[in-house]
Amino acid sequence: MAHRIVADEADRADLIRLFEGLSLPFTVEWSAGRDRSLEQNRLQFQWAREAADQRGDVTPDEVRRDWKLRHGVPILREASASFRETYDRVLRPLPFEDKLRAMSLVEVSSLMTVRQMVQYLDTVQRECAEQGIRLTDPDPDLASYHSRYRRKEAA
């Protein structure tokens, strides 16, 4: 699925030009907010390393693929009709182990908005705490950033 971040007026103008050049009909899907931040992405990778180290029976990549499938996919299926349709048609019929392997090829967290990534990271952090896995607390600036996005969602 093609996607584009529109962060300023120049991006908006480029997107409008793109739409004007497309043949009709076409379908557009968008979400408010911005893509997840690089800091969120780094935290996800750090936590996967920490969880794998503490478990000792998996690699960080296996941890990330599991989180993507069990936590990330439901978030995107709820938010995006096109993601849900594609996932349900192609991956949902597969056995769990095949879905896990496919997560190395399927974009999940990279498609998320900041708010979706906050939800994803919160779920991962809660699950790890329940399993006795200790994760590094996010940088105070990132924690504050997440807090702002949680408040907006509750409003």
Provide tags for this entry:
single chain; 155 residues; mainly alpha; 7 helices; globular
Total discrete domains: 1
The secondary-structure element order is HHHHHHH
Q: Uncertain regions: pLDDT < 50 for 5+ in a row?
A: none
**Separation, N- and C-terminal Cα atoms:** 30 Å
Strand content: under 5%
Q: Summarize model confidence as the mean pLDDT.
A: 87
The Cα radius of gyration reads 17 Å
Oligomer: single chain
Number of strands: 0
Q: In terms of structural class, how would the helical and strand content be classed?
A: mainly alpha
Taking the sheet with the most strands, its summary is: none
Total of DSSP H or I helical runs spanning 4+ residues:
7
Brief summary:
The protein is mainly alpha-helical and 155 residues long.
Any overview of this molecule?
This protein has one domain (35-154). It is mainly alpha-helical and 155 residues long. The protein has helices spanning 9-21, 38-55, 60-79, 81-90, 96-102, 114-130, 140-154. Helix 2 runs parallel beside helix 6, helix 3 crosses helix 4 (81-90) and helix 3 packs across helix 5. Helices cover 65% and strands 0% of the residues.
Summarize the topology.
Layout: H1 9-21, H2 38-55, H3 60-79, H4 81-90, H5 96-102, H6 114-130, H7 140-154
Helix pairs in contact: 2-3, 2-6, 3-4, 3-5, 3-6, 6-7
